[in-house]
C-alpha cells in the first residue's frame, strides 16, 4: 500500500487470547483469527494488529516474550501464522505484529545467559549495584536483586519482564534481525510496545517522582528509531505505530513526521486519563468531558501537517469505551454509535478493538477472583495495604481494570458467547445473549453497520484524511462539535455526549448539506437550531 492508502485505512486490533477458539480451548488461537477473516473483510478494515503470540510464560499475557522466533503453543504453530498471513492477504488485509523490545521475559535465553554472567549477554540488560527509587508501572520498586551476581536488574513492568539495554549495539542488531525475519514472512506492519521507554538516562537519576521523567522519550530515542527505520522499515511495504507512554506532542510530531524517517504514526494516551483523579488510575471517578475535548483537539491541531495520529478509544489495556464515556445500559447502541462518529471524524488512522464494533461493554465482575490481570491484582494488594477499602478498590477495578476489555469476544448467544466449547480463561460478560456478532449482523441498524459506514466514508471522503480541525464547542458541558475542512470539502460533526436532550446552533453555511452519518433516523433541525437527543451524533458534509 502507498502512504496515501494507509492513511485512509482502518486497523482492527485482535487480542487473540480472547478472540475465538475453534479448537474448544480456554484461550483463542491463530486459527481462530483466520476463521473470522470474512467477518473482518465485511467490516471493511484493511489491517489487523494482533497482540503478541510469541512463546511466553504469559505472566503479562504475552508481553513477556521468551522466544521472539517461536509461536506460543497455546496459540498454535508457525504454519498457522503463515496460513493467516496468506488468507488475510487474499482478502486485502495486512497483518501487523506486536513487537515487544523494551523488555523481554526473564525466561528468554538472553536473560538466562545474562544471569549466568555470559560476557556477551550480561550487558543486554540493565544491571546496577544499587537500586534507585524508580517505580514499576505495575506497582512496587522497578529493581530486582539477583543474589548470585549481587546486582539489581531493571524491570519497568513486571519482575519477570527485564528491561533490555538499548545502549548495547549488538543487542540492537539482534532485535533488528528478528524484526527483519517477521517482515520477510509477509508481515505488513509493526506495533511497537512502549517504544518511547527504550532510552534511559545512563546515570539513572532519582528525585521525589516515580522516575518516569528519566526514561520517557529518553536522550537517544530518536536516534534508535531512525536506526530501526534504516535497518528494518526503509524501502519495504510496512506501516509502523509506536505506543508512546506518557509522551509529549512535540516528540510525537518527530516520531511520525515523514521527514524524520522514524515511524508512520503514534499512539498517545493523555485522552484516556481524563477519569484519573490527580493522576490516580485505580479510583472510581467520572470522566472530565471538557478535558477530553481539549486534549484530543490539541493533538488534532498539533499533529496536522506535521505528524500522524493513531486514533482510538479502546485497546487490550483500556476499559470498554461505551462503559467509560457512554451509557452501557439505557443508551448502549446510541452512545456506542456516537463515540464511533466522533472518533472516525478525526484526522489519523482509526483503530477498532475487537468487540468495539458491536458495542461490547465492561463485564461488571463483582468478585476479585474473576479478574486475571496482573496489574489489577498487584494494585488491589498494594492499595489494600495502604488502607483503601475492599469496596472502593472493587468499584475502581470494575471501572478501570484491563480485564474489562479482555473478556471473550461475543460471537453469538450460545454458551460462552460462541468463543469456545470449553471453559474460557476468563468469564464472558453477562450480556452476551443480547450483545453479540450474530445479532449485530442481523440488525441493519446495529453498531456494526454504523462502523462499517464510517470505515467506508474514510476511503471516500478526502476531507477525513486531509482536512484541518477546528473545535467549535470548547466550553460546552454536553456537546462536542468540530469541523474538518479542505479547499474542496467541509465536514461538521456534532455529538451530544450525555443522556439528556440539548440543543446546538449549527453554522449557517451547514443548513442545507448532506448527512453522511447519523445514529437516529432524521436530524431535528429548525433553521440553525439542532435539537439533540440522548447521545445523538450527526456528521454533515458538503462540497465547496
From TrEMBL:
It is an enzyme of class 3 (hydrolase). It comes from the Bacteria. The gene is treC. Residues 13-406 form the Glycosyl hydrolase family 13 catalytic domain. Its EC number is 3.2.1.93. GO terms for molecular function: alpha,alpha-phosphotrehalase activity. This is Alpha,alpha-phosphotrehalase. It comes from Exiguobacterium aestuarii. PANTHER family: ALPHA-AMYLASE FAMILY MEMBER, TREHALOSE-6-PHOSPHATE HYDROLASE.
Amino acid at each position: 500500500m502507498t502512504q496515501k492508502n494507509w492513511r485512509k485505512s482502518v486497523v482492527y486490533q485482535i487480542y487473540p487470547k480472547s478472540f475465538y477458539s475453534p479448537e474448544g480451548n480456554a484461550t483463542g488461537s491463530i486459527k481462530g483469527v483466520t476463521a473470522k477473516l470474512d467477518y473482518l473483510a465485511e467490516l471493511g478494515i484493511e489491517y489487523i494488529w494482533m497482540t503478541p503470540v510469541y512463546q511466553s510464560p504469559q505472566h503479562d499475557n504475552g508481553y513477556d516474550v521468551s522466544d521472539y522466533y517461536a509461536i506460543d503453543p497455546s496459540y498454535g504453530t508457525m504454519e498457522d501464522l503463515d496460513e493467516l498471513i496468506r488468507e488475510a492477504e487474499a482478502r486485502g488485509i495486512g497483518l501487523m505484529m506486536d513487537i515487544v523490545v523494551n523488555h523481554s521475559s526473564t525466561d528468554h535465553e538472553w536473560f538466562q545467559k545474562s544471569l549466568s554472567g555470559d560476557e556477551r549477554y550480561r550487558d543486554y540488560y540493565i544491571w546496577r549495584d544499587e537500586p534507585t527509587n524508580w517505580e514499576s508501572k505495575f506497582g512496587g520498586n522497578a529493581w530486582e536483586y539477583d543474589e548470585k551476581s549481587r546486582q539489581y536488574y531493571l524491570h519497568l513492568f513486571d519482575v519477570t519482564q527485564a528491561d533490555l539495554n538499548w545502549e548495547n549495539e549488538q543487542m540492537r542488531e539482534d532485535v533488528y534481525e528478528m524484526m527483519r525475519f517477521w517482515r520477510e514472512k509477509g508481515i505488513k506492519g509493526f506495533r511497537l510496545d512502549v517504544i518511547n521507554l527504550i532510552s534511559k538516562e545512563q546515570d539513572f537519576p532519582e528525585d521525589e517522582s516515580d522516575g518516569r521523567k528519566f526514561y520517557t522519550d529518553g536522550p537517544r530515542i530518536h536516534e534508535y528509531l531512525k536506526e530501526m527505520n534504516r535497518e528494518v522499515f526503509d524501502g519495504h511495504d510496512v506501516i509502523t505505530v509506536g505506543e508512546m507512554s506518557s509522551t509529549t506532542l512535540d516528540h510525537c510530531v518527530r516520531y511520525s513526521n515523514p521527514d524524520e524517517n522514524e515511524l508512520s504514526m503514534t499512539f498517545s494516551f493523555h485522552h484516556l486519563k481524563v477519569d484519573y483523579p490527580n493522576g490516580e488510575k485505580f479510583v472510581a471517578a467520572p470522566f472530565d468531558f471538557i478535558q477530553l475535548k481539549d486534549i484530543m483537539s490539541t493533538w488534532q491541531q498539533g499533529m496536522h501537517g506535521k505528524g500522524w495520529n493513531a486514533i482510538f478509544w479502546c485497546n487490550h489495556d483500556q476499559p470498554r469505551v461505551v462503559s467509560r464515556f457512554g451509557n452501557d445500559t439505557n443508551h448502549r447502541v446510541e452512545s456506542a454509535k456516537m463515540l464511533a462518529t466522533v472518533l472516525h471524524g478525526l484526522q489519523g488512522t482509526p483503530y477498532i478493538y475487537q468487540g468495539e464494533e458491536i458495542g461490547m461493554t465492561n463485564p461488571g465482575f463483582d468478585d476479585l477472583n474473576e479478574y486475571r490481570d496482573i496489574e489489577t491484582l498487584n494494585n488491589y494488594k498494594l492499595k489494600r495495604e495502604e488502607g483503601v477499602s475492599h469496596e472502593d478498590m472493587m468499584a475502581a477495578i470494575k471501572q478501570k481494570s484491563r480485564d474489562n476489555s479482555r473478556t471473550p469476544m461475543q460471537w453469538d448467544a450460545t454458551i460462552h458467547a460462541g468463543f469456545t466449547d470449553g471453559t474460557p480463561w476468563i468469564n464472558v460478560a453477562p450480556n452476551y445473549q443480547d450483545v453479540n456478532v450474530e445479532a449485530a449482523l442481523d440488525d441493519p441498524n446495529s453498531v456494526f453497520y454504523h462502523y462499517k459506514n464510517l470505515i467506508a466514508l474514510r476511503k471516500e471522503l478526502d476531507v477525513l484524511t486531509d482536512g484541518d480541525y477546528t473545535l467549535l464547542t470548547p466550553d460546552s458541558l454536553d456537546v462536542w462539535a468540530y469541523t474538518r475542512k479542505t479547499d474542496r470539502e467541509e465536514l461538521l460533526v456534532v455529538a451530544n455526549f450525555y443522556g439528556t436532550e440539548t440543543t446546538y446552533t449549527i453554522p449557517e453555511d451547514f443548513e442545507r448539506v448532506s448527512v453522511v452519518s447519523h445514529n437516529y433516523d432524521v436530524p431535528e433541525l429548525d433553521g440553525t437550531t439542532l435539537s439533540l437527543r440522548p447521545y445523538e451524533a450527526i456528521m454533515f458534509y458538503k462540497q465547496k
